[in-house]
Amino acid sequence: MSDYSLVQRGQIAATSADGAGPKDFTISAVKTASTFVTARVRDRRQNAFVQRGTVTWGDGTTSPQNVTLGTAIDLACTTCHVTFRENRDGNARGVAAELTSTTNLQLRFYGTIDAGENIEVSWEVIERKPRRMATVRLLNTTTVRMEWDGTLAAGETIEASFDVFDLENFGDDIKEILFRLQRILGDNMLQDSILLDNAGNMTQFRLRFFDSQANAAAATPDFTGGLQTGETARVTLTQDINVATNDRKSLLKVRTDVIATPGVN
Known about the structure:
Layout: E1 7-14, E2 23-26, E3 35-44, E4 48-57, E5 65-68, E6 78-87, E7 96-101, E8 104-108, E9 118-128, E10 134-140, E11 143-148, E12 157-166, H1 167-185, E13 189-196, E14 202-210, H2 213-218, E15 231-242, E16 247-258
């Protein structure tokens, strides 16, 4: 019967060094048509990415002022917040903020900052990450692959523990067991090629097994050629008879022919 491991287990771990992936794990060869993978994924990623800083403007600074973000953001899921402290005369008060591109935060204020005046602005850009997932699948006969959305940032990790089940070998064993059981039960069997000693005892005979009653009935007794239609195996039995006491001293059973197990490659 088959010699195999029904289950192969492993773990794939990804860090920021793996970027956008994917990441592969090598296993012993399996048959893709009969294999499935189960996996448990632990995803440690931040749901929000924050960039922040502080700028100070003094005499002669004009509006607007731009802050270049260190990392490009997705405008659709990003908000910005500012707090400011200012020392200005008159009614020129306040600071407005707007994300004008994926890498630019524009800060606006009234007029030009005069001598002796200043504005200090603390800004924060928060990108709310869209829902992200990781999947594990059988890529080919020897590779399990983990793939994930986006790119892993510093400190983020994904770990996947998996089990790979190849059921074809298991199924082959079931077919082999059924095939052998059919021969053991001998439901459709022909006994022929009988040899007798002088006392009429059988000293040798042959058992021929068939896959159906019809094929057994249609077989040619004492046929010496190859296996006939529906014939699955042949066994020759030789008996050593003690003629004086008419007792069988031994029985030797030898399988002479057998077909390959049906349905097993």
